[in-house]
Amino acid sequence: MDPVNPHIRSLKAYQPGLQPREGERVIKLNTNENPYPPSPLVLEAIREASTDRLRLYPDPRSHALREVAAQVYDVHPSQVLAGNGSDEILGILIRTFASRGEAIGYYEPSYSYYSTLANIHGLEVVPVPLESDSGPPPLPPRRDLKLFFLTNPNSPLGFSVDPDFVARLARHLDGALVVDEAYADFARATCMSLIRSVPNLIVTRSLSKSYSLAGLRIGLAFGPADWIEQMDKVRDHYNLNRIAQAAAIAALRDQTYFRQTVERVLNTRRRLLEGLRSLGLRCPEPEGNFVFARFPSADSAARTYRQLFEQGILVRTFPHKGLEDGLRISVGTDRETDLLLEAIQAALAANP
What is the CATH number of domain 40-253? Predict the structure, then answer.
């Protein structure tokens, strides 16, 4: 007898972006990490937290972090949940709102981990195809979804939809709308203010991108206090360690450094977008810390990917239908961007 659940045996696991080995020298533009270090206050907080108190369990509910996040995002602490990365938050949402056999939905393409989580929990998956690279997307044909995930800005395409569309989408749905704002700090608008007026809305945030804390895995959820309380019941106890809590608090408190870092990324994003378009590549207007570039053909994109990889430049390719001719490129430093553009230009010249 095979004791493994059959649906797990047949499950296709989520494939994260390639991670180079420690010490391997590459230009890493494939997983949308911030090219700049976290705030100096974060490093100081980590040093101060690295004491003999590490032998003790952390605050199981991350009270101090939730209070600071509430101040930064102008909500009540009861409307905040802290997670071990926004991926844990997504899992908490699935376990709180959906039972085996029920349906969840999302736009496609977007974050493929939604379908992985749904399959793990035996849920029906209802993907809604996007009609263009720039939105706005169509409303889901079904209203009876327990959860609907909206990645805003979209990844991998990079466009975002405005809060008015999000409010309309929420009213269209019978269940909860989850707006995954992992990249929202780089966008023109966010949906945080809708929490006050849209009763079936949850917004998730990540400190991986704009706060440079991908290595510590810190995510946040914001929503109605009653829903946050229910989600807290299924959250893993002690889910955020002492170091992560201290670092997240310090990062959120240093809004000056945060704004400076975001502005640096946005400035380089403009240079990257202009450079890619000058090479004849089609790029949706980006709202995240990356640009999605469409090449003349799928073969052209694949050849360029291989040539970049051989030069130690990592970007992200997607084998999904409709994305074969594209590469998603994270915003790096100005120097990394110059080297990338030179390499793409050479690749296109050699293989038009």
Answer: 3.40.640.10
CB 301 within 8 A of CB 261: no
pLDDT in tens, 115-131: 999 999 999 999 999 98
Question: C-alpha distances in angstroms, 59 versus 104, 121, 207?
Answer: 32, 28, 19
Pairing mode of beta strands 316-317, 27-28: unpaired
Q: Which amino acid is at 76?
A: H
Distance CA 219, CA 217 (A): 7
Distances (CA, A) of 112 to 89, 108, 117, 336, 344: 15, 8, 9, 27, 27
Using CB atoms within 10 Å of the CB of residue 331, give its burial: 0 to 12 exposed, 13 to 18 middle, 19+ buried. Answer: buried
**The domain 17-37+256-350: what is its CATH number?**
3.90.1150.10
Band of residue 352 on the pLDDT scale cut at 50, 70, 90: low
In whole angstroms, what is the distance from residue 162 CA to residue 136 CA? 9
- E-strand stretches of the chain: 27-28, 80-83, 103-108, 124-129, 147-151, 176-180, 201-206, 219-222, 290-294, 313-314, 316-317, 326-330
CA distance 205 to 256: 19
Looking at the DSSP bridge assignments, the partners of residue 67 are: none
CB neighbours (10 Å) of residue 88?
20
For 233-246, how does the pLDDT look when each residue is reduced to its tens digit (9 = 90+)?
Answer: 999 999 999 999 99
Domain boundaries, the chain: 17-37+256-350, 40-253
The secondary element (H helix, E strand) that includes residue 248 is helix 242-253
**Cβ atoms of 160 and 187 closer than 8 Å:** yes
Which residues are CB-contacts of 76 (< 8 A; sequence separation ≥ 6)?
70, 225
Residue with the two structure tokens 């493929």: 112
